[in-house]
Amino acid sequence: MSKLLRTLRPALPSLRPAVLTRPISSSPFRLAGGVAPDPWPLPLSPDTISREKYAPERLSDDPESWNMPQPLDRTGEDEATMRARLVYQARKRGCLEGDLLLATYAKENLPGMGMEEMKAFDKMLDEPDWDIFYWSVEKKEPPPRWKGSALLEALKQHAKNEGKVVRMMPGLSDQPPARE
Questions:
Q1: Which helix (H) or strand (E) holds 135?
Q2: Contacts of 142 (CB under 8 A, 6+ apart)
Q3: Is residue 92 situated within a structural domain?
Q4: Does residue 55 form part of some domain?
Q5: What contacts 32, CB < 8 A, 6 or more positions away?
Q6: Reduced to 3 states, what is the DSSP secondary structure of residue 125?
Q7: Distance between CA atoms of 67 and 154, rounded to whole angstroms?
Q8: Which residues contact 101 (CB under 8 A, 6 or more apart)?
Q9: What is the DSSP string of 66-113?
Q10: Extended strands (E) in the chain
Q11: Residue 46 resides in a domain
C-alpha cells in the first residue's frame, strides 16, 4: 500500500491545481462565436420563460373568465350526507383563518339549516378560501352573487364575535345532531 502511495504522490500535486482551478459557474458556457444557451435550463428561469413555447398565458383581470375547475355534481345527495360533508369541508379549507371561521360557523349553524340553506352554504364553500375570509371580515367587497345574501350576512356577524367568545377548532364528534 505504501509503495502505491509513493508512486502516486508525485502525480497528486500536478493534478490538484487542475481540480481546484476548474470554474464552477451557472453562467452559460462560451463558444468561439459567442454565448450558447444553457443546455439544461431550469423550468422557470428567464431563458425558458422568454421562449414562446414555455411562456405562460396572461390571465385576464376578470376572475369570471378564468378556467376554474367545476364543483362536483352532487344531485341526489341526502340531507345527512350533505351535512356531514359540509362539516368536513368547512374544517379542511387550506388556510387556518378560514378553517376556524367556517368550522365554528358550521358547528353553531349547520344543525339548524334546512336543505336550501345547506345548498347555499355548499355554493359558498366552492369559493376560494381567502375570498370567503375577506368577505366575512369585510376587508374585500363580495361579488354581486353574494352581496347582501343572508348566508354572508350571518357569516359576517359570526366573524365579528361580539360576545368575545374564545373560538377553537371543533372536533368532528362535537357536532350536535341534525334537527328533525
A1: helix 129-136
A2: 135, 152
A3: yes
A4: no
A5: none
A6: helix
A7: 30
A8: 132, 133, 136, 155, 158, 159
A9: S-PPPPPP-TT--HHHHHHHHHHHHH-SSSHHHHHHHHHHHHHHGGG-
A10: 30-31, 34-35
A11: no
Average pLDDT over the chain reads 76
pLDDT tens-place string over residues 13-57 = 555 444 444 455 555 455 555 566 666 766 666 655 555 454 456
- Residue predicted with more confidence, 107 or 94: 107
pLDDT (0 to 100) of residue 128: 86
Residue span of the structural domain in which 139 resides: 79-172
Q: What is the dihedral of CA 53, 58, 63, 68, to 10 degrees?
A: 10
Q: How many domains does the chain have?
A: 1
> 48 vs 54, 55, 102, CA distance in Å?
6, 8, 41
How far CA 133 is from CA of 45, 57, 102, 173, in Å, comes to 34, 28, 9, 25
Whether pLDDT at 151 is above 90: yes
Cα Rg, the chain, nearest whole Å: 30
pTM of the model: 0.60
pLDDT at position 55 is: 46
- The CATH number assigned to the domain holding 91 equals 1.10.150.250
Which residues, 6+ apart, have CB-to-CB distance to 127 below 8 Å? 146
Rounded distance, CA 55 to CA 48, Å?
8
Domain membership flag for residue 151: yes
Q: Say how far apart CA 60 and CA 63 lie, in whole Å.
A: 7
